[in-house]
From TrEMBL:
Organism: Pedionomus torquatus
Family of this protein: Belongs to the acyl coenzyme A hydrolase family.
Alphabetical keyword list: Hydrolase, Mitochondrion, Repeat, Serine esterase, Transit peptide
Cellular location(s): Mitochondrion
Record bears the keyword Repeat: yes
Chief location category: mitochondrion
Annotated GO CC locations: mitochondrion
GO molecular function: carboxylic ester hydrolase activity; fatty acyl-CoA hydrolase activity
InterPro entries: HOTDOG_ACOT, HotDog_dom_sf, Thioestr_dom
Name the UniProt record assigns to this protein: ACOT9 thioesterase
Cited SUPFAM superfamilies: Thioesterase/thiol ester dehydrase-isomerase
Pfam family, one: 4HBT
Stretches assigned to the HotDog ACOT-type domain: 81-204, 294-406
Amino acid sequence: SAFRLCTMRKLPSLLARMLTSGTGGSSTLPDMSEVRSRLRDIVGASTNWRDHVQAMQERKALHTLLAKQQEDLPPRRMKDSYLEVILPLGSQPEIREKYLNVHNSVRFGRILEDLDSLGVLICYTHTKQEMQPRSPLSIVTALVDKINLCKKIIYPDCDIKFTGNVSWVGRTSMEVKMHMLQLHDGDYSPVLDATFVMVARDPENKRPAFVNPLVPETPEEEEIFKQGELNKLKRIDFSTASLLKMAPTAEERNVIHDIFLNTLDTRQEGKRGGDLKTVSFRSRKLPPNSVWMEDTKLKGLQICHPQERNIFNRIFGGFLMRKAFELGWATACSYGGSRPFIVSVDDIMFQRPVEVGSLLLLSGQVCYTEKNYIQVRVHSEVYDADTREHQTTNIFHFTFISENEVPRVVPKTYGGKYPKSMLYLDGKRHFAATMKEI
């Protein structure tokens, strides 16, 4: 199976026992609406859009509660931030409609929204100050490191349980590991694992702020913490090796050159009584069972209404992920000609916040294919109608698997402003990283 076998060996044994405890106590677990309600209470956010300016002004006074250095904050354990949350699709049928897709399974975009909210609440639980109902910290999603799935189908009529805790802490950032399980025959079985990175900022969301250090208690927790450190180093390496900073390797250049030679249009032309084979660099032909990369694009536009705002009155990161995923899925669906299934989400960097009222432009493109796999890149940018400027907010990477083998995607341009060959190599790298994980 292409889907990774979800295991719990990375979890502390205590948390693993809690995860495998069956259905006991589910009815008393908070649900996703309570998660969002708790977040509003922690920040002191207004539920009324007209009052948001005043609510944000009131947060300025919380500056005095910020730690001057990390050493001033009490250390926390992994179990201090551990949360379990129920999504009662089985026991509360009235909430199913919001999560249902046309294939009678759960909309994965909605799951992305829930993971984003839960990740923030877990971090607020880790940094909670006793006797302080409101947090001086603005905690926001910086990066979705990876989400790997081990089930093709998420059923719309069975309860879902989310669990998670802070797994690594820097000075102003926190890694959160979350797991999603679904109830079948009285037991919860794994569906996906997710790793998010959150950053803490001051009450006005302008400057970095210190967070409580994390102290592992068991050998298993030591292992998880070390893995968090390795993940950070991997992210730095991956960023350093970006095609924007470093030229393609010799092997990658050979791949691109082979594709280039395969697409040259060779033809016979008579010249002075003899046949001479001439090749034009301009004249290109598409190899059999292939599609030009530039023909795989789908685009979308979203007006960012106040309804989609987060507790800091910017557009909710989970909403951006849902919209990008849905466009990515549609891109893979139209390319492969059959229903695609999500295998992995990785390396979503939140480069800048999206303001309420923005015009959000999304562009999905197939950038790499292999057998049944389709690697899709979705570029997200905001358009400022006053300045007429476009600014990138996110780049999303999704790996899908199609029911049938798909055509090969072929880059046509090798230079210019948007060289498709670089997108192809970037997609190939992300796909290789995903396959290594699963």
